[in-house]
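In this section we walk through a basic example: taking a raw amino acid sequence and producing a predicted 3D structure, encoded as discrete structure tokens. The instruction is simple. Fold the sequence below.
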Amino acid sequence: MRHALVLTLCLALTPAHATEKSPLERGDYGPLDKAPESALYDYPIQVSERVYSAIGATQPPTYQNAGHNNNLSFVIGDDAVLVVNGGSNNALARALHAEIRKITDLPVKYVISENGQGHAYLGNHYWKSEGAMLIGHADAQHEIEAKGYGSLTNMRRYAQGFAEDTELVNFDITFEDRYELDLGNVRVVAKIYGGAHSPGDVTVLVPSENVAIAGDMAFHVRMPPIFDDTDTRAWLESFELFAEETADMIIIPGHGGPTDIETVRAGTVDYLVFLREAIQALLDDGGSLDDAYQIDQSAFKHWHTYEELAARNAGRVFERMEFE
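The resulting token sequence is shown next.
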């Protein structure tokens, strides 16, 4: 049933005049669902002794993946469990909790959302009902206040039954620079390195495990989305601060599996530098926004979400750089 519905959605999103299939229809993203018995797109993998992550689909949110298109991670201490990203809806949060309970009986006492995007916080409604403390950056809380109901409405549209009983909740604790937790012999540090992909992007460091849950500071496998408020110049500066601290750590990015700093540098910095240089050349030559949309980004065509994002990214960088 879920397969039929997602095919219908894909066809609905494809222009009527299009002759080519969408990336989802072509199977460019791989399996549409790796865990059909669960709301999760895929089951958690063990990244280190105490850190796990359920790697989401590197594709747009659909009914098929229930909005699990980002990574949902958790850290197990001696006394408590920390979840990083509440998920897109209560069904996903509930499914992740079921997997956590297969590993430990410890309570989930804390949930940190990596930013103010819906798939990072909408499932916090479930975690709140389970007694967890909700934590996020102050800028992410502002995003919830400004855009939360829109995100909730959009999620209900594609997630359908998975959205049942999901409501909007705010963070219990917000921070500006860093926030530390002791899970019982496991210290966790949530911190922001500066402007990045979206407001309130934080990285969660687990020093004893040599793991950095980087969130949307770092990308690979899929193309980084650039939003209207993304400052790519600040992102490049912030990335260097992030890289300096995490150079020898295992990196769990916001999307795609665990990797190392050089891989996410190639997937983030190299792309941003390429795009900014191409846009600067256009601006120097008096080029227009229409010209920006035509920039040849085919070197990145193998990345997931390329077709959805490449031209849009170029347009947004052009509009921003006009006023730098």
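Looking at the output, two observations stand out. The CA atoms of residues 279 and 318 lie 6 Å apart. Residues 1-18 have pLDDT under 50 and may be disordered. In the next section we compare this with other chains.
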